[in-house]
Amino acid sequence: MFNVFRVPAYVLIALSITFGGGTWATTRILKATSGFGAITVGPWSAYPDVQTADADPYARAHRAEDGRLLFGRAEGLVFSATADSEGNSLAGNCVYLVSGQAPPARFWTLRVTDRAGRPIPSRPNTPASVQSWLLLQDVLGYFEINVGGSPQPGNWISMSAKRPVRLVLTLIDTPTAASVGLGEVVVPTIKQVRCDDT
User: Fold this and answer.
1) Any idea what DSSP says for residue 83?
2) Helix axis angle, 2-32 relative to 57-66, nearest 10°?
């Protein structure tokens, strides 16, 4: 009796492994990247074609699965960083100094999220992001932004987490989106100041 069901049982096991493994691998790929065609400048990376007709199939699948509103090439560009300028992974228990000049844009914001892109809760009445219209900077457009748990004078983003984090720089209405292949993109640096071991 067992010999009658042995072959169908093997086929069922093989199909389960194939479909289960394929689904798992596809989900991992979609969560790991927004597709091919990334541009990388220092620790920052962006996917300028993710919302355009030139997007590759992986980017389109990621866009459909993610369900978030993304910018077209003429609307803006989103850079994200999961490491500082030295290549060290960004951690929620550390303090960072983001400095330099942002690429030209009508408006831009800098915020902290977890690795999945979800906002990290900040303490009440503390800034969870900074934006270009309210930024303190010198006459040449140079700025410094402190990112960490303790309040700092000047530009400061409150961050207190015990897990890896991501910095997200969103540029709205920027010529950078149309010229990302020219190698002229300038983004701020990210320097680790210190880390709390607690």
Assistant:
1) B
2) 90
Q: CA 163 to CA 67: how far, in whole Å?
A: 24
* C-alpha to C-alpha distance for 75 and 73, rounded to whole angstroms: 6
What is the C-alpha to C-alpha distance for residues 44 and 167, in angstroms, rounded to an integer? 9
Q: What is the pLDDT of residues 26-49, one digit of tens each?
A: 666 555 554 556 677 889 888 776
Length reported for the chain: 198
Q: What is the pTM of this model?
A: 0.72
- Contact yes or no for 34/45 (Cβ under 8 A): no
Distance (Å, whole) CA 51 – CA 32? 17
Please give the C-alpha separations between residue 14 and each of 5, 21, 73, in angstroms, as whole numbers. 14, 10, 44
Report d(CA 39, CA 59) in Å as an integer: 14
